[in-house]
């Protein structure tokens, strides 16, 4: 049933950071992106090789039904007194059928928000249908980077100042020692609550590679776990860090991503493809619904400040530790998306209904299942 419903909806946004390098931009390479289940590409360094390379990337994206976000430092580095220079830079690409928008900043401090907001308002007058894209820092950034008293202040200030069409942020939780960063759920909760208040969709980056000797390469279950947790919290888009394996830069080192430096698909490519195939089914449904909160079995994750005791006909979530995102349609309970909180062991989750029925569902490591509720 859900497959047919999803087919009639808009595709769920699934993006990537670090696309094929300039000398690899081709219809065939962008077909690999499409085949892995992606719907949009965030430009990287194509502009360094000239506007023609960006135009070629847009053409390759269009040929494969993808959207493309232009990354042009000439735009994102404009000052507030230079806004008249924006229109000719934007118009070069904004009429292309594959054009999604422009990247304005990756991980700005709060001291950049006013300037970026001025750029966004000018941009919107040039490309009203385009996306002025900014990706925010995670909560483990330093106070000097955030430039605010708390991370919640950082997110709130961005929403109030920049007024994004969608808020994106990155958080890479999987440590080399096998642990998960302590504030993973807290960061998800902070962004979810702020975006819920302001009625702004949020997008999350997913860790897809090992880097710096501190973050491990995720297996398929760990990728699935990150994605499904994001969906349960109400994310309306996901993005992967990274697609093509980056070169070492700025003191950072990177292991293989979905595509190795030699251009060959890695095992992560196929893992992500399988997860994205699942998102293509459930994502459009969740995208059309309103996130109302969380049901939790087991101990409430640190940083999640409030959980629901019941939702619609569901009076409790029991069994092994799980999180269920609660979703409504037209102010009526519609479904819950139940996710195994363990990415290494299966779980049995028990949904208790108000008519004394119980539904036990088996969840593989990191798996999520959408459970419709009676209307």
Automatic annotation (TrEMBL):
Entry annotated with the keyword Hydrolase: yes
Enzyme Commission number: 3.2.1.23
Pfam families with a match to the protein in the record: Glyco_hydro_42
Enzyme class label: hydrolase
Gene3D superfamilies assigned: Glycosidases
Keyword Thylakoid: no
GO molecular function: beta-galactosidase activity
Protein name: Beta-galactosidase
Domain Glycoside hydrolase family 42 N-terminal: 162-279
Top-level lineage group: Bacteria
Coiled-coil residue windows: none
Keyword terms, alphabetized: Glycosidase, Hydrolase
């Amino acid at each position: 049933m859900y497959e047919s419903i999803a087919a009639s909806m808009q595709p769920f946004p699934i993006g990537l950071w670090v696309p094929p390098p300039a000398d690899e931009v081709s219809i065939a390479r962008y077909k690999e992106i499409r085949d892995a289940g992606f719907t949009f590409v965030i430009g990287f360094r194509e502009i360094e090789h000239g506007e023609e390379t960006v135009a070629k990337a847009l053409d390759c994206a269009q040929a494969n039904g993808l959207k493309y976000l232009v990354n042009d430092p000439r735009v994102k580095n404009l000052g507030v007194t230079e806004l008249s220079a924006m229109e000719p830079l934007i118009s070069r690409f904004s009429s292309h059928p594959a054009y999604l928008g422009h990247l304005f900043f990756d991980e700005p401090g709060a001291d950049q928000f006013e300037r970026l907001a001025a750029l966004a308002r000018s941009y919107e007058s040039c490309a009203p249908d385009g996306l002025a894209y900014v990706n925010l820092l995670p909560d483990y950034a330093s106070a000097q980077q955030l430039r605010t008293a708390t991370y919640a202040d950082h997110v709130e200030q961005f929403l109030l100042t920049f007024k994004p069409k969608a808020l994106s942020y990155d958080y890479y939780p999987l440590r080399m020692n096998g642990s998960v960063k302590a504030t993973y759920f807290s960061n998800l909760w902070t962004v979810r609550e702020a975006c819920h208040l302001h009625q702004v969709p949020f997008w999350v980056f997913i860790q897809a590679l090992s880097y710096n000797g501190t973050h491990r390469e995720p297996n398929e279950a760990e990728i699935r776990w990150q994605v499904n947790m994001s969906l349960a919290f109400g994310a309306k888009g996901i993005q992967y860090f990274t697609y093509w394996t980056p070169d070492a830069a700025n003191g950072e080192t990177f292991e293989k991503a979905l595509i190795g430096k030699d251009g060959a698909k890695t095992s992560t490519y196929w893992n992500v493809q399988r997860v994205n195939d699942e998102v293509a089914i459930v994502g459009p449904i969740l995208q059309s619904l309103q996130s109302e909160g969380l049901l939790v079995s087991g101990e409430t994750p640190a940083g999640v400040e409030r959980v629901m005791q019941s939702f619609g006909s569901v009076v409790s979530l029991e069994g092994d530790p799980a999180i269920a995102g609660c979703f409504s349609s037209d102010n009526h309970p519609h479904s819950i998306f139940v996710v195994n909180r363990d990415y290494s062991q299966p779980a049995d989750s028990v949904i208790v209904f108000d008519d004394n029925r119980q539904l036990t569902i088996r969840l593989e490591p990191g798996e999520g299942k959408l459970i419709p509720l009676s209307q």
